[in-house]
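wait is this the right file?? whatever heres the structure
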């Protein structure tokens, strides 16, 4: 199945041809419950009628213009995202990695503006994932992703929730920025504690370090609030978003507070494709749905899914822990998760495995109550076929 492609992914053999909401169909006509949403992306599910209509209409008008021209949709999305995130200005990108890359360059530039150009390094959190470009991969914890590409940008890591280690690192390194995910996605759906998030805010303010929240995975409503950090009232200096932002079309954003809005001058950063009329039209459909109350469904279905998973934990010894909030959930197993993931595909449930022993559950925001209950039934039946003490991480 990998013909003609570089070998960067282990691709499954199922070929999906269409879908509706949280349901996908493969080429044999088999139906699957999509609890993966293209890795936490397809917020409106598949074939959402308003999205289909808007994209069809926009393709017939204008797809691409470049950032050399103003377009009302680009400015509308920027304004609405800033209002939802307490930020003041946006730079659009085509992916989460590029949003992080923008944040890193912006932090370095901000230090130049301040007369502290020696502040070029970064501090990040162990277990974090921020993408694959040379800048973003520098901050990504998993050594396997970094090792073949060294030397990389200088980064110091601190353990999750260790405010004392963070203070030491900020004082010793005088970095340009501290970058964290409020809920680590690739790191196994691991929430940082509210106490640590608030301490990080205070320490960054005290040491003149920019605080970057990478909400590429946790943001845009996946946890039931537009940003995961909003559950705890923490406002960073920079927020990165991507995944669900244009309901499946490639788009990301780096958003900054008013104090940083003029950091980049003309020509200091750019993108040919980003923020064009087509992706912004899709983003407006997503934001309209958010305005109509979509995140209420995320909170309610997320609570039902979480309760159901907690019940499984009581009944099935293979389940070690239930993690996350809203529709960003993880089921930590006493078993390596990849075999379980394959068995779930067989049972018609799409999930994936992160941090080796965690099943990641990140369905479309439009998933229904019945689909949540059916997913739980299939997950329970599949897990029951696995012995609790099989080989794997303990
Ligand atoms: C927290 C976080 N940051 C950055 C990225 C990179 O985003 P992308 O794959 O869109 O480049 C990801 C992707 O999984 C992510 O989860």
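ok assuming it is, sequence goes like this
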């Amino acid at each position: 199945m990998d013909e003609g492609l570089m070998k960067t992914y282990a691709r499954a053999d199922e070929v999906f041809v269409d879908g509706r909401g949280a349901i996908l169909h493969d080429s044999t006509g088999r139906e699957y419950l999509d609890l993966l949403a293209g890795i936490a992306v397809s917020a409106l599910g598949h074939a959402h009628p308003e999205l289909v209509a808007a994209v069809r209409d926009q393709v017939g008008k204008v797809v691409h213009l470049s950032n050399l021209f103003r377009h009302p949709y680009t400015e509308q999305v920027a304004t609405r995202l800033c209002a939802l995130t307490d930020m003041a200005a946006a730079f659009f990108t085509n992916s989460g990695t590029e949003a992080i890359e923008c944040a890193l360059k912006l932090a370095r530039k901000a230090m130049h503006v301040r007369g502290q150009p020696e502040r070029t390094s970064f501090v990040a959190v162990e277990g974090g994932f921020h993408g694959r470009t040379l800048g973003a991969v520098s901050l990504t914890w998993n050594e396997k992703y970094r090792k073949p590409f060294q030397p990389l940008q200088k980064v110091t890591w601190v353990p999750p929730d260790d405010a004392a280690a963070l203070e030491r690192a900020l004082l010793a390194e005088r970095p340009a920025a501290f970058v964290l995910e409020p809920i680590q996605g690739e790191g196994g759906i691991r929430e940082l504690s509210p106490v640590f998030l608030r301490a990080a805010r205070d320490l960054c303010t005290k040491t003149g370090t920019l605080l970057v929240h990478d909400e590429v995975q946790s943001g845009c409503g996946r946890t039931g609030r537009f940003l995961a950090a909003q559950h705890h009232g923490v406002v960073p200096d920079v927020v990165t978003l991507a995944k669900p932002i244009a309901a499946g079309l490639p788009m990301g954003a780096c958003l900054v507070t008013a104090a940083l809005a003029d950091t980049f001058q003309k020509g200091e950063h750019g993108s040919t494709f980003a923020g064009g009329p087509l992706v912004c039209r899709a983003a407006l459909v997503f934001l309209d749905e958010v305005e109509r109350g979509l995140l209420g469904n995320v909170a309610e279905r997320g609570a039902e899914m979480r309760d159901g998973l907690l019940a499984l934990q009581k009944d099935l010894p293979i389940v070690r822990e239930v993690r996350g909030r809203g529709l960003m959930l993880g089921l930590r197993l006493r078993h390596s998760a990849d075999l379980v993931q394959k068995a779930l595909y067989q049972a018609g449930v799409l999930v994936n495995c992160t941090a080796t022993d965690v099943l990641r559950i990140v369905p479309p925001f439009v998933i229904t109550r019945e689909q949540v209950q059916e997913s739980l039934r299939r997950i329970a039946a599949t897990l029951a076929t696995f012995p609790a003490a099989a080989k794997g991480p303990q």
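The chain has two domains: 16-34+293-383, 52-291. so i think its the right one actually
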